[in-house]
Amino acid sequence: MQPNRTLQILNKAAREKYGVLAAIAYNIEQLTALVRAAESKRSPLILQLFPSTLKQLPTLAHAAAVAVNSATVPISLHIDHAQDEVHIREILTTLPVDSIMVDMSHYEKEENLEKTRVLAKECHERGIAVEAESGRINGGEDGIAGTGNLEALFTTPEDVEDFIKAEIDILAPSIGNIHGDYGPQGPALGQIHFDRLESINKQTNDRVLVCLHGTNDFTAEIMKRCIENGAIKLNVNKLLLEVWNEFLRQNASKMPLVKLIDMGIEILQKETERWMDICGSSGMA
Asked: Where on the tree of life does the source sit, at the highest rank (predicted)?
C-alpha cells in the first residue's frame, strides 16, 4: 500500500509516545474549528465523519479533503464506524478518504472476522487504511447502530491475533470503555482496564496501531494513562463537542447567526487546543 496519511500520523505518534485526536465533526463549522486548532497548536489531527453524516451532508467529506490537502500540518480523513458493507464499498470508491473503520462488531466473531478480512483487502487495494473493533464495546452514540442486547466482550489475546491475521492496520480494543456517556463523574474507578490495554499494546508488537474508543467524560488523567499504556489514536466526540453544544443551547435564541457561528468556532477551537496539549501532540507536527 502507498504511504497513507492516517498511518503516517499514527506511526510517528507511536514512535514519539504521544496521542493524536481523532475528532468527529458533524458540520463545516466544527470542521473549521478542529483544523484551526491543529494549525494553531502545530499538531497532527485525524478528522472523523460518521457514515450518517456522509448521507446528511454529502459534500462534507470533500470539504474535509480540501482542508487535509491545504493544511500546513499533517491531517487525515477517517470514516468512523462504517457498518454497512454496501456503503463501505461506495465510500472507498467515491470519496477521498485515508482510512475507514470497518465495524462488523454487531456480528458474531467469526462472521465479523471474515467480513473484516474481505473489506480490508478491498480498502488496501485503494490505499485506504483499515480500523476494526476487537471484542465488543458496549453502548451507542449518534450515527452508530447499537449492539442491542449483545453482550459487551473484552478483547482477548486470541482476538488480537485473529484481527491482525485479518490484515487490519488499527485495532480498537474493548477494555471497559463504552460508546456514549459514562456519567458526570466519568468512568468508575477500575472501569477502564489499563493493564489490559498495556498487555494488548505489548502483544501487537508494532504490527498494528491501537485506537481508543469511548472517551466521553474522560478526565485528563484517564486520557494520559491510556496514552501511556499504548493508545495512539484517540477517538473524541462529546469530549470536545460538549462546549459547542452547551454554547448553542445557551445562546441560539438570543444571538445573531453570524456571531453565533464565529463564537462557537472559537470556543470549540480552544477546547480542541486544550486536549491537544493534554494528549501531547501540540508542537509535534
From this structure: Eukaryota
